[in-house]
Write a structure and sequence with these properties.
By secondary structure, this protein is an alpha+beta fold. It has a single domain (3-173), classed as Neurotransmitter-gated ion-channel ligand-binding domain (Acetylcholine Binding Protein, Chain: A, Distorted Sandwich). It contains two helices and eight strands, in the order ααββββββββ. It has helices at 2-24, 27-35; strands at 56-68, 73-85, 101-105, 114-116, 132-136, 140-143, 146-152, 171-173. Strands 1, 2, 3, 5, 6 and 7 form a six-stranded antiparallel sheet that branches. A two-stranded antiparallel ribbon has the order 4-8. The N and C termini lie far apart (70 Å). One of its GO terms (cellular component) is membrane.
Length: 179
């Protein structure tokens, strides 16, 4: 009988101790751990610097704002979905109250320096430093910048209204090599 009471006491102490550990690992603790020594100036890769770093970009058209035959341009409003993996921002959700994603300010994380080639607008970084990003526990980062994009585009209207136009919106890194 005494063994059963002692065993029950140990089980209760162990359970209370483990409950206390889970309470201390909050989303606040996660942010603190992830960003304590994080350097947003370095490309976040685990492998050697010669390995390619993959950044995915998808464009979602919201509207065609202007087609200018005289200037041979097209202007659209769109948002981009930009995704990459940051190997320095990975965590185990079970250690942090099952938190599987967090939001972060863009200025606090490394972001690719993406610009639109052949734009007629001011050549500037597409990603707004005041924006936000979603960081997933596997290190995947997704952000959705939006704006108006204007590019040169050969516009042929010889068969109006049955013309088809193909305009290229080519995004690239401004300072990093294409690899």
């Amino acid at each position: 009988m005494r063994f059963g009471v002692y065993f029950f006491y140990l089980l209760v102490v162990w359970a209370l101790d483990n409950l206390g550990d889970n309470d201390t690992h909050t989303e606040y603790d996660l942010h603190k751990r992830l960003f304590q020594q994080y350097n947003s100036n370095l490309i976040p890769r685990r492998m050697t610097s010669s390995d390619p770093f993959h950044v995915g970009i998808e464009l979602y058209l919201m509207s065609i704002d202007e087609i200018n035959e005289l200037r041979q341009t097209i202007a659209i409003t769109a948002f981009l979905e930009i995704e990459w993996t940051d190997s320095l921002l990975i965590w185990e959700p079970l250690e942090y109250s099952n938190v599987t994603s967090i939001n972060a300010k863009v200025k606090d994380i490394w972001t690719p320096d993406i610009v639109l080639r052949r734009t007629l607008d001011k050549q500037s970084d597409i990603i707004d430093a005041d924006g936000h990003a979603v960081i997933y526990s596997d290190g995947r980062i997704i952000m959705w910048p939006y704006g108006r994009f204007t590019v040169s585009c050969k516009i042929l209207i010889g068969q109006f209204p049955f013309d088809e136009q193909t305009c290229l919106f080519d995004f690239m890194s401004w300072t990093n090599p294409s690899s």
